[in-house]
Design a protein that fits this description.
The chain has 277 residues and is an all-alpha fold. It contains twelve helices and no strands.
Length: 277
Amino acid sequence: MRTSRAGRVGQYVALLAYLVFLAFPFLWLISTAFKPPRELGSLHPTWIPKDPTLANFRQAFDEQPLLHAALNSLIAALCAALIAVLLATPMAYVMARHRTPLARAATGWVVVSQAFPLVLVIIPLFLVLKNLRLINSVPGLVMVYVVWALPFALWMLAGYVRAVPRELEEAAAVDGAGRLRTLVSVTAPLLAPGIVATALFAFVTAWNEFFFALVLLKTPEKQTLPVVLTHFIGAEGVADLGPLAAAAFLATSPSLVVFAVIQRRITGGMLAGAVKN
């Protein structure tokens, strides 16, 4: 019993250390965002600003078009999340309900595609968008985000579909409902939590994405928020630390809020279908 208690205490200590490790960068970011310049250059930095100020936030908005960049990010993320969910829902249903060789191949593609590094796919994507004349455009960026979000969306929604009892669909078929009617009227309402969680995850992924936006968007008025944050770093690599921390805090906050809301849904999606009825 003592061994079990000691093991549990050790688990809690390890979990606490891990949480501290994860929270440290964000807490330090918040502290830096509210520090005046003299504290930022101090040889003995403190956690809590001695003289907190909002000057860094004012300077950040004065130096860079943060609101316009945030609007670009919002449009791209919302469109990518909506399109990805609309495409992934029927595809995930087919993958989960019809265990054909094609469905198994699609599942394998979902797993393998997650291993591709961004650098490996950016050149083919760039050439495709160039031929479609979608370089330096938000619609082109949305197309890339949809392609990048689809594998995880399929994997996540397929788990939710497997958790829906087949008996409900069989009962609908007995009542005369077709496959499409069953999917829309019976299965889709039960998948609503999973669809919402998947859409929010796709939104957060697109909101935080940097590499594709950096390569595909050239003009300042079309750049997204993560790209605009790099403008706080000078030509010699010296960062304007206070405004950069303030802008980064504002850019990070929506992602943290969304993840706080959907983290249980995401875990449920990963585990759904693991146990047979």
